[in-house]
Specification:
140 residues; alpha+beta; Arylsulfatase, C-terminal domain; 10 strands; 16% helix
Amino acid sequence: MPITEIRIKLMMGYTDERLKAFCSITFDKSFVINGLKIIKGNHNGFFVAMPSKNLKDPCPKCRNKNDLQAGFCSKCGWQLDEKRAIYNGRVNLHSDIAHPIDATSRKYLQGEILKAYYKEIELYNQPGYVCRYDDYGQGD
């Protein structure tokens, strides 16, 4: 499916210096994915993080689902195992909701999104700039 639109919401002036923008991408004028993030990496420049959700697991005492970052159950107060977020030796707190299934697709999407990001920065620096990120359905 062809990319028909990329919308960027710049995060200029916010406290998190790594998060540069939010992004939505539309495929074939019919399918939108929201919640992508453009992040400045520590070593390799910018990258696009796919939309994700916080992973949860049940409390061993009451079965209430808690974020993997929680130290205590939000329902019964039971102390939770601090190592429960480790999977294959890595801490895993989030799961992608949507993502490319191969490296070629990821590279293509990231390239197109970063092009749109740089273009949005150019527009931002022009007089009369208006962010279009949140105006779905308004004159489209």
